[in-house]
Design goal:
heterotrimer, A mainly alpha (about 525), B mainly alpha (about 80), C alpha/beta (about 400), A: about 525 residues, mainly alpha, C: about 400 residues, alpha/beta, Rossmann fold, five-stranded parallel β-sheet, two-stranded parallel sheet, 19 helices
Chain lengths: ~525, ~80, ~400
């Protein structure tokens, strides 16, 4: 079910009404049933994968929980009569047992994801390589479909398993409730990736109707729809036009397409998050933030801490820290320190794990070399910007620039914006080669006259459309600045006089209805010139 | 121990006033890079093994919390 | 939830509804300019005094180009009104007739069957909208939209159609968006961008007609293009299930609702490819016992007096000179066959007298000041290979600038 569909809106209204009408002890069941109904709409056949992963995760989780309880009980009972060494030995035995379970669960769940998502990519490349050696046998490509949200719920399940391994909380003992945690519909499509200790209890507890909470939730949903329909879907027209056939374009037009795509995906993705969070808020559930005004970031590293936050924190907790703090990396650190000296040497292993993280982030987006390139691009930029930051500071000092000034901060934001936009060539370009080609031609052929000769009107958008885009970006900017200063917009509006508030809410709905980019569009000529 | 800890912290991030701050992690003052560098220093300096499980915000939000963590790990051996 | 909160919610939704309602009226099918007066035709229909019509004519664009209602009134006191649209979907004929009969107790419906050609029958969002978006919201309109969507599915599931698409390497179009078809606002809200006019804000859907439905778009009624006369053939094509289904439905409707039907094929040029389907349709209808007249025979052309060098503004449409000839002929036929009561001089029909006077002025002024001559198409272009459709003319053909 697409968020932008009448079906979804009807579904939401029915679900919300049911949730508040049903007695408290059944409320979580309404959420579970609703989530599976939602999932069924996207392909009932592929549901089996979700159920299987849920089952594997639940069972291994319970086992880990059992071991945790057993071991802590044992250690408590025998606190006095065990030596330190005996304790250590016991602990490492327990750890080994837990490791086996974790490995099994992660291999199975991750394996399914990797197989379904990357098999064809790997097969194609194997075929390419062995083709060079004259081997005529080829690995066959399979017709594989991806279950809805598999990239998200798989990560969520791994987080749960590893958290249990780390003894962070107690395992869930109720399969159906756990199934709700894994399938909660607002976040199944594109996240946020939830942590069990933050989400689960909220799902299981009943929430009563609260006027303020419900109305603010709906306001957030409205805001999300506005971002998606007014800005994202409108930008998409021009962006798609250029990316579908980039050959005749160059210079700033290509950059516009990439930067435009960045804005489009921000509006679309964060809009989707707003809808998810808004619906959840109506139901009394708080989902994690996934976006915090990423375009206010002053470095690419900071950008990725404000963009798709839950993916970043997942990578941090389950890839970056484990890698960086592992024995191997510690040893590596000792060696590099000897070679490269203290400053760089200390940081090198962390750079390596950072690079690995961004490679994974890139590849997680999809199975294509362009995503590998995307990962490498981000990794290289971030590592080099960390290395270069002191250089920048020195340069600024030499030029007498105040690095705390607004001007410098603006420069940093602009620099980040340009770098991130260039990265978009890889995430949106049709193939890796096309992306590289566009990247190079965007730089090599600057053509400032395109801003003045009306060329932008050839991409399917009229100048009125561009006005709407500019105004939308302006609104987002103002809202963003206010939020950076700590203003909570919805509450701020709620404080105002009822007339003022309602003008805003009603105006927002009408603006969405009239200026949203939906409904196939209208052109006078189609009524006269029939398209055969 | 506190002096040594402060020394390490100031060496890592001279721009931060560690005595005053109470939300070093929650407010994003120390980022994941800083944490990793800090942990490897602490591990070697105080002969402990801080691992991923200990990287909860609650353990690193204040110097006090960091000292408590180190002490606890030293005890457990 | 407290009472006050519940009240606020209800009030909010109410105000929202009150604000949205006029938007639905503003953002609908254009009443001026864009749609060549199709909405205007319906608006004038809704403005007509009830139960004043004897007969209605439906079908494709040929109909309103060829029928001068005030002339028939002048000669015989009959009130015969054209309620066609460009490439009107033949499968929506019964809905158009139902709509008309809500306010007019007509005795006869003349159905032009040119729309039976598979090319004209091809369901298309715009062709359907010309009917459904102009009708007022009602059960009949709702049914018409559903029929349009269903026929779209049926057409693009038909084997013959799919084979032809494959041969031409064309893709099967997406099914129609039901929400957008039922709620025109979904489509037309984009008109904020292409331009709204005063009439969209203040216009109503009932207006007084000046000439009782005579086609009056710019210079077109006064345009002459020399057309190669029809090469008449009496070959009959094999009608497929879709086509016979549509014809059966109309026949069924006539029987069940006790409405007399007359099926005609309007006189203009027709290619050798176009005639067989029409011939077959008329033959099929005749077999079922219906009354049919084919005006595309040499005898008929001669009897009506159609001069292919003077009376058409493009292949498929008569200009007003040709229309006068056709109207004279056809109104006489209607009078002799159906004997509609002569209402000249009766109370409540003054508008028709006015319409005639308006028409005379329109006609004379038009030929004096708006006469346009279009050079004939290249040799051989107007027959075999021409896949021209019945609604793409006017601006393209005459090269006149589109109304803004």
């Amino acid at each position: 079910m697409d968020f932008i569909s009448v079906t979804f809106m009807i579904f939401i209204l029915i679900l919300i009404c049911l949730y508040f009408l049903v007695p408290d002890k059944y409320k979580w069941m309404v959420l579970l049933a609703g989530s599976y109904v939602f999932y069924a709409f996207s392909g009932i056949k592929l549901m089996i994968f979700l159920i299987f992963t849920t089952g594997v995760t639940f069972v291994s989780g319970r086992k880990l929980g059992d071991i945790n309880e057993e071991s802590s009980r044992y250690l408590k009972e025998h606190k006095a009569d065990l030596t330190r060494d005996e304790k250590k030995q016991y602990k490492s035995q327990i750890t080994a047992r837990k490791k086996r379970i974790v490995t099994a669960a992660v291999v199975v769940n991750l394996g399914i994801l990797i197989f379904l998502k990357y098999f064809n990519f790997i097969a194609k490349n194997i075929n390419l390589v062995i083709g060079q050696f004259g081997v005529t046998e080829k690995v066959p490509l399979l017709n594989l479909l991806l279950p809805l949200g598999i990239s998200f719920y798989t990560l969520q399940s791994i987080a749960y398993i590893v958290d249990l391994y780390r003894g962070k909380y107690q395992a869930d003992r109720n399969f159906l409730k756990f199934a709700l945690f894994m399938s909660f519909f607002p976040q199944i499509i594109q996240g946020p990736i939830a942590r069990y200790d933050q989400l689960a209890s909220q799902l299981y507890e009943p929430h009563k109707f609260d006027y303020t909470r419900v109305t603010q939730g709906f306001q957030l949903v409205l805001w999300g729809y506005m971002k998606k329909l007014i800005l994202a879907d409108r930008l998409a027209v021009a962006v798609n036009f250029i990316f579908d056939d980039p050959a005749p374009h160059e210079g700033f037009i290509l950059f516009f397409a990439a930067a435009g795509y960045g804005l489009q995906v921000y509006a679309d993705f964060s809009g989707g998050m707003d809808i998810a969070r808004g619906v959840s808020q109506v139901l009394g559930i708080e989902l994690a933030l996934n976006f915090e005004r990423p375009y206010f970031a002053k470095s690419v590293e900071e950008f990725w801490r404000r963009w798709h936050i839950t993916l970043g924190s997942w990578m941090r907790d389950y890839v970056f820290y484990p890698l960086s703090l592992s024995k191997n990396f510690a040893n590596l650190g000792k060696r590099t320190r000897k070679i490269f000296g203290n400053y760089i040497g200390k940081k090198l292993p962390t750079f390596l794990s950072m690079f690995i993280v961004f490679l994974l982030v890139g590849v997680w987006h999809g199975s294509s070399w362009k995503y590998v390139a995307y990962g490498i691009w981000n990794g290289v930029i971030i590592v080099s910007s960390i290395l270069l930051e002191p250089v920048y500071q020195k340069m600024a000092q030499k030029c007498g620039m105040d690095t705390e000034s607004a001007g410098w901060k603006f420069f940093q934001m602009f620099r980040t914006f340009v770098l991130c936009s260039f990265g978009r060539f890889f995430s949106r370009g049709k193939t890796c080669m096309k992306a590289i080609d566009m990247f190079i031609r965007a730089l090599a052929f600057p053509n400032p006259w395109v801003f003045f000769n009306g060329g932008f009107l050839n991409f399917g958008l009229s100048y009125k459309d561009y006005n709407v885009i500019f105004i939308s970006i302006l609104v987002l900017l103002v809202v963003g600045i206010m939020q950076e200063r700590g203003v909570h917009i919805r509450e701020k509006i709620a404080e105002q006089h009822i007339c003022f508030r309602w003008v805003i809410y009603l105006g927002a709905v009408l603006t969405l209805l009239v200026f949203g980019y939906y409904g196939g569009g209208y052109s006078a000529s189609e009524f006269i010139y029939q398209q055969f | 121990m506190k002096e040594k800890l402060l020394e390490i912290l100031n060496d890592l991030r001279p721009d931060v006033e560690f005595e005053k701050e109470t939300k070093l992690i929650d407010d994003g003052i120390l980022d994941s890079f800083d944490i990793v560098s800090l942990v490897s220093e602490l591990n070697s300096e105080f002969d402990v093994e801080i691992n991923v499980m200990d990287l909860e915000p609650v353990n690193f939000n204040t110097i006090q919390a960091m000292m408590e963590l180190i002490e606890k790990l030293q005890e457990e051996g | 939830m407290t009472k006050k909160q519940g009240f606020k919610i209800v009030l909010f939704l109410l105000i929202l509804g009150i604000l949205i309602y006029p938007l639905l009226g503003i953002f609908q099918i254009a009443a001026e300019g864009d749609t060549l007066g199709i909405k205007k035709r319906y608006n004038e229909f809704y403005g007509e005094p009830e139960n004043t019509w004897d007969c209605v004519m439906v079908g494709t664009s040929c109909v309103d180009r060829e029928w001068i209602a005030p002339l028939a009134w002048k000669n015989y006191g009959m009130t015969v009104y054209a309620m066609n649209t460009d490439v009107q979907p033949l499968y929506l004929t019964t809905n158009v007739l139902t709509e008309v009969r809500k306010t007019q107790d007509i005795k006869l419906a003349v159905v032009d069957v040119r729309g039976i050609k598979m090319k004209s029958l091809r369901p298309d969002e715009v062709r359907i909208r010309r009917v459904t978006d102009c009708m007022r919201f009602s059960a009949n309109q709702w049914e018409a939209v559903n029929k349009g969507i269903q026929f779209h599915n049926a057409y693009y599931s038909d084997e013959e159609v799919l084979k032809k698409l494959k041969k031409n390497k064309e893709e099967v179009p997406e099914p129609l968006d039901a929400v957008a078809m039922h709620v025109p606002f979904v489509k037309y809200h984009s008109r904020w961008e292409s331009g709204l006019r005063k009439i969209d804000f203040v216009g109503t859907d009932t207006i007084e007609s000046t000439m009782k439905g005579v086609y009056d778009f710019e210079n077109t009624p006064f345009t002459v293009e020399e057309i190669i006369p029809t090469f008449v053939t009496d070959k009959q094509a094999e009608l497929n299930e879709l086509q016979t289904g549509v014809l059966d439905e109309i026949l069924e409707y006539g029987k069940e609702t006790d409405l007399e039907l007359l099926f005609i094929a309007s006189p203009t040029q027709l290619s050798k490819k176009e005639q067989p389907e029409i011939n077959a349709a008329l033959a099929y209808l005749e077999e079922q016992g219906a009354n049919v007249i084919n005006y595309n025979t040499e005898e008929m052309y001669e009897e009506i007096g159609i001069n292919f060098s003077e009376d058409l503004y493009n292949r498929h449409h008569l200009n007003s000179r040709g229309a006068v000839k056709f109207t004279e002929y056809f109104s006489k036929y209607l009078n002799d066959t159906y004997h509609f009561p002569d209402k000249r001089g009766q109370e409540g029909y003054q508008e028709w007298d006015m319409a005639y006077e308006n028409f005379v002025a329109f006609y004379e002024d038009g030929w004096a000041n708006k006469y346009t001559y279009v050079y004939p198409e290249q040799e051989g272009g107007s027959d075999e290979d021409d896949e021209e459709d019945e609604d793409s003319e006017d601006n393209k053909e005459t090269g006149e600038a589109q109304e803004d």
